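WP5 quarterly update. Target: Alpha/beta fold hydrolase. Source organism: Sandaracinobacteroides saxicola. Length: 266 aa.
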Amino acid sequence: MMTIEGHTVRVAHWPAPAGGGLPLFFFNGIGANIELMAPLADHLPDREILTFDMPGIGGSPAPAFPYRPWMMARVAAAILDEHGHKQTDVMGVSWGGAMAQQFALQYGSRIGRLILVATTAGMLMIPGKVASLSKMFDPKRYSDPDYMLRNFETLYGGASNAGAAAHALRTKPPTRMGYMMQMVAMLGWTSAPCLPFMRTDTLILMGDADNIVPVINGRFLKLLIPHARLEIIEGGGHLFLLSMAETVVPIIEEFLSGDEPLRQAA
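Structure tokens (predicted):
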């Protein structure tokens, strides 16, 4: 547990062997606790990984006051400082993808490479299916495993729902205040005006069967970010990062280990 600028947060750290390159800082999706992304660390054993539960999510106490994305970016920077890192690669999924963009724009000199997974530029997003979005904004998907399993395909989409039961068992219900504050934090937020000025090499990963964040949002990000590469995962639902890890992780590893800077394709 760390207390940073008035917010107490639970931090997770997976160390890695020496010489493993930059650490990877991970921003999770809305309402999602650390345990939900833990399998990703198992797939990247040579990579040091850092992440934290947002206030009121997982093991972090409910926030004492509202927060904005720039505030949580400062929390992430303080966590990196505490672990002795001046630079990091950054990955964010869904809501956390917006946070990853905020961190990259706020702390550009501290980022090596950026990975955006199933995410958008904020309020300018093209929404997914109404049935999925209505269930996504209901925190019951985290508090009732049976509800999540019954609605998993409607919620997330995708050709493969492998690991759905394990995913449900790893969930820890967010506090009502934490979930609400996390939704409110992004109200009115968009990265769109700033993305053309970002100089960070960026990998955008989107699933073509995502019920929550359609692929067109990834194409929009690719259009705006000067040095970006877009990969579309065939059959990938909103949780393809975990359900299709055998397909996605090699793409991530290849990108993070690349030496040549990206150039925007024509």
